[in-house]
Amino acid sequence: MTQEQYNNLLQKAFASEYAFYLKAQNFHWNVEGYLFPQYHEFFGHIYEEVSGSIDTFAEQLRAARVYAPAAFTLLEELSDVRGQTGTVDGMQMTQELLLDSDMLAEMFKTAFLAAEEMGDYGLSNFFADRQDAHRKHSWMLRSTLK
Description:
Elements: H1 3-30, H2 36-63, H3 72-78, H4 90-117, H5 121-144
């Protein structure tokens, strides 16, 4: 893997994680229905956990001499997570977050392997932790859908 490919992967992973955070927060704010309290709290836990990783992620990128994307247009361009602009119910919100969280767990696995290959072991540890966090989110989202 070239340095440029690695840098692009890091920026894509950051943008996707940031977009997931925004999506979960959007769902926390805008969920409605008879299960509102449960969904509101559940989505709140997810976005708060992811939010806690964003600054560290950006600092890890800067330590690796990579700029953290910060413009909305750039984040949208780089991210594999797509925002939800419509009004959907709590079940669909849960399904979307599950698909995104599963995808992010795989993305962080790929990023972990790339960081290991590049000898960037501190960043690989961070990616291992993010993969674990998304696997836990996915487990809870999947369980909610049953």
